[in-house]
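Ticket #4471: structure export looks truncated?
Reporter: QA, pipeline team
Priority: medium

Steps to reproduce: submit the single chain below to the structure queue and open the exported record.
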Amino acid sequence: MSSSPEQTVPPLGYGAANVGNLFRPLTDDEAWAVLDAAWDAGIRHYDTAPHYGLGLSERRLGAFLRTKPREEYFLSTKVGRLLRANPDHERGGLDTANDFHVPDDVRRVWDFSADGIRSSLAESRERLGIERIDLLYLHDPERNDLDLALAEALPALEQLRADGEVAQIGIGSMVTDALAAAVRGADLDLIMVAGRYTLLEQPAAADVLPACRERGTGIVAASVFNSGLLAQSEPRRDGRYEYGQLPEELWERLVRIAAICADHDVPLPAAALQFPLQSDVVRAVVVGGSRPAQLAQNAEYAALEIPASLWQTLAAEALVPA
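Actual output as written to the record:
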């Protein structure tokens, strides 16, 4: 079945890793309540992946979205990892090594071949129960083989788009070198930049954003709260930074940013959510959440009017790009 014509990506999206039991298990009812809260808050952009909960995120999100008119939402998922039977699965075994509280009866198998990419799309459609995928990302290509991704996976995505199977294609990564190489090496519509263009740190500004401007590629910014560091107005020194402790330099930067936000009467999370959208190449921000109240709050933060003086002060202090 052919995809619809290219659809504009809504500026606020829900990243559905949490309904795949990321970090903590949710019942089906709890996951539904989170998705219901997102919809009620006006969110119409949903992102998932086979990686999230070994398919659980796609199944839960698909079950929810099938109750909504298809023309009213934008849906993205990802390719690059196929889910196959896990010969090492034992009764009670969980995928907690990857932070998902789900049975590890299947495992992730990298496959960047054209056949693998097509199989991944077909299997995601089956799990979702939804034929039309608006945007298909290659997920974390640098974790497997970036050269192979550039040589085989991205051309396979371009062919899927040419065949009308999807409207838009891209990659998702938290590594700026991989993002920039992909943008320059393929004709991509959107890329997902995870944690590399945030209020706290903007390494993507050096290479990725210029590459996107040159190529006409848009950006979807993800992980904009930096592992939760920016999710509350009063930063905590014991907050986690990606996979370890927060470096002192970043802590000092965070304190300065929080103080400037307070001076402008702007909640730090609102500034964090809206900051990426100040760039001409950022089309949307995707945030997660495992509780209904978080979704409602994020929608409020996205709609909050922020004075231009905040961004001007942050730029003057060299905390964000001018």
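Status: closed, not a bug. The export was complete when the record was re-opened. Leaving a note from the reviewer for reference: Confidence is low (pLDDT under 50) at residues 1-5.
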